[in-house]
Amino acid sequence: MGRDSFDLVIAANRLPVDKVTAPDGSTSWRRSPGGLVTAMDAVMRDREGAWVGWAGDAGEAPPPFVDTGMALFPVALSAQEIADFYEGFSNDTLWPIYHDVIVPATFHRHWWKAYSRVNERFAEAVCDVAAPGATVWIHDYQLQLVPALVRARRPDVRIGWFNHIPFPPVELFAQLPWRGDILMGLLGADFLGFQRKADAENFVRACRRLMSLGTRGEQVRVPEQDGTTRTVRAAPVPISIDVAGLETLARTPEVRARAVEIRESLGNPKKVLLGVDRLDYTKGIRHRLKAYQELLRADVIRPPDVVFVQVATPSRERVDAYRELRTEVERTVGQINGEFAAIGFSAVEYLHHSYGREEMAALFLAADVMLVTPLRDGMNLVAKEYVTCRFDGDGALVLSEFTGAYHEMRQAYVCNPHDIEGMKRVITTALTDPAPVRRRRMRTLRRNVRANDVQNWAHRFLNALEHAPRRPGDEPPDRPFDQPDGATADNPVGGHDT
Ligand code: ADP
Ligand code: F6P
User: 221 forms bridges with which residues in the sheet?
Assistant: First the structure.
C-alpha cells in the first residue's frame, strides 16, 4: 500500500469485502452483505479515500490492501468481540431497540464494555489514516461512540455520521442503560445524517429530554469542557443507489436473456412475485408468506399460474432471533409447497444464497410484482433497485409504509404488513391492475428514484458536513435555543416537548 494518510476516511463496521476461509484453509474475498456496502461502494469508486472496517472473520486483521482502487484498512475483532460487540450489543441490543422492539432487546453490561472497546479501536484506526484537516465519515449504529472518540484525539478533522437504520422514539431509546454515553458519542460529530425527518427529530428530542441540552430545529447545543458551546446539526439525508450503473447493467443483453431464462425455468408462469431480503425479522417475510398462503387457500391465485420467489440472504446466523426466524420461514415455505406445489412446479421458490449483481438485476427484471413488506426499515434499497431495473416501464412494487423508501415512493402499491387482509388486497391489486395504471405508477417511481441517486446523496451529506458550524459561535444567532424542558437522564419523561 503506497499511501498512509487520506483526506477522506470512511469508517463502517464492515469493509466492502469479507474474508472467506474455505474448508481447505484457502482464503478469498467476497462482497459484504447489506445496503451500506451497496451504497458506499458506488460512492467511493469515484473518490480517493480510505475505508476502515472489519474484514468479517475472527482474529488478527489482515494488512491494509487495495480493492477496486480503494484503500482498505482492516480492524481486528476477536471471536469474543464478534459475540459481544457485533452479535450482542449491535445486533441483539441496539438493532431491536432501533426497530420498534419487534423482538425484545437483550442488555448485558459486558456487551456494552466490548462495544466501547471496539469503538475505541475503530477511532484509533481512523485517526491513524486521517490526513490533517481530513473529512471523516462514520457509518451506522455499530460505531456511535466513534465521533466523540475521534474528536477528542483529532480536533482538526471534520466528522460526519450517517445512520442507515431508523433512530428510535425517545420512549424506546430511553430503555438503553447507556443512552447518555451514546448521545454524547454521536454529538462528537459536526453533522449527523438520518434516513427520515422523523429519525432526525427523534435524535434531537432525545438530546433535549435525556440530556437536558438546548435544541433549535435541527440543531443541538453541546457544552464544551472549556465553558463554550458547540452546535451539532441533525438532518434527514435519505440514501439511494447507483441508478445509472444499475440501469445500464439491467439493459445489457446478458441480463435480459437471463431474465427470460429465469421465467422459463420457473415454468413460464403468468405472474412472478419476488421478495429479496436479508433473512431478518424486520423485513416482514413471515407476514408476506402468510398473506401469500391465504391468497392461495382462497384460490385467488394458483400455481403454476403464479409463483413466488423469495431470496433470503443469510444474516447474523448465530443470534437466536435470526435462527428462530430461519426455522419458521423454512417451515412455512415447506407447508405452502406441501399444500400447493405439484411435480414440476413449486408455489414458493426459496433461495438462501447470495448472488452477483447481474443475477439480482435479472431477478428484478423477471418479477411482475416485487414484495417489499418490512415491519420497519431505515430505507430499503431493494425497492429502489427494483424500479431502476424496470427500464421497460412495467412491473409493480408493493411497499410497506414502514420503510424509509415509502417517503419517496408513495406511488407504489402501499401496504401495512401488520394488516394481513389489507396486504392481500394490495397484492391482488398489484397482480390485476391494467397495464396503463401499473405503468403510470412505475413511471413516477422511476422518476423519483432517478432524482436522488447515491451520488446525489453523498454530495448532499458531504456538503452539509462541510457547511456545519465548527467552532462555538459559528451558528447564526437568529433565535434563541429552546431551553431544556426540565427532564434529566434519570427522568426522561419529566418534561414536555417544545
Ligand atoms: P439491508 O441493508 O437491511 O440489508 P437494503 O434493502 O437496504 O437492506 O439493502 C440490501 C442490499 O443487499 C441490496 O443492494 C440488495 O440488492 C442486496 N442483496 C440482498 N439480498 C441479496 C442476495 N441474496 N445476493 C446479493 N445481494 C443481495
Ligand atoms: O444498515 C443496516 C446494516 O446493519 C448495515 O450496517 C449492513 O449493511 C447490513 O445491515 C448488513 O448487516 P451485517 O453487517 O450485520 O451483515
Answer: 231
Q: Is 140 in the pocket of ligand 2 (CB under 6 A)?
A: yes
What residue owns the CA closest to ligand 1's atom 27? Answer: 354
One fold for 6-236 and 243-451 = yes
- Give me the torsion for CA of 78, 83, 84, 87, rounded to 10°: 130
Cell numbers given for 108: 448485558
pLDDT in tens, 152-198: 999 999 999 999 999 999 999 999 999 999 999 999 999 999 999 99
Q: How far is the CA of 31 from the centre of ligand 1 (A)?
A: 11
CB atoms under 10 Å from CB of 20, counted, come to 13
Atom of ligand 1 nearest to the CA of 383: 6
Give Dmax (Cα) for the chain. 76
Chain centroid offset of residue 413 CA = 22
36 lines ligand 2 (CB under 6 A): yes
Read off the pTM.
0.94
* Dist CA 243 CA 455 (whole Å): 9
Domain ranges in the chain are: 6-236, 243-451
Span 305-332, pLDDT tens digits: 999 999 999 999 999 999 999 999 999 9
Report which bound ligand comes closest to the CA of 319.
Answer: 2
Query: Cell numbers 471471536 label which residue?
Result: 79
Homologous superfamily of domain range 6-236: Glycogen Phosphorylase B; (3.40.50.2000)
State yes or no: pLDDT of 478 exceeds 60.
no
Q: Who's near 152: CB < 8 A, 6+ residues apart?
A: 188
Where does ligand 1 bind, in terms of residues with CB under 6 Å? 34-35, 38, 276, 278, 311, 313, 353-355, 360, 379-382, 385
CB within 8 Å of 491: residues ≥ 6 apart:
none
| C-alpha 474, offset from chain centre | 32
**3-state SS class at 123:** helix
Record: fold of 243-451: Rossmann fold (3.40.50)
Rounded Cα gap, residues 417 and 287, in angstroms: 6
| Beta strand ranges found along 271-419 (DSSP E) | 271-278, 306-313, 348-351, 369-372, 396-400, 413-415
| 319 Cα distance to chain centroid | 18
List C-alpha distances in Å: 196 to 281, 401, 424: 21, 13, 27
CA distance 474 to 230: 8
Q: Yes or no: say if 457 and 413 are a contact pair by the CB < 8 Å rule.
A: no
Cα–Cα distance between 126 and 117 in angstroms, integer? 14
Beta bridge partners of 28: 20
Ligand 2: centre distance to CA 106 (Å): 19
Cell triple for 199: 429519525
Q: Ligand 2, closest atom to CA 278?
A: 11
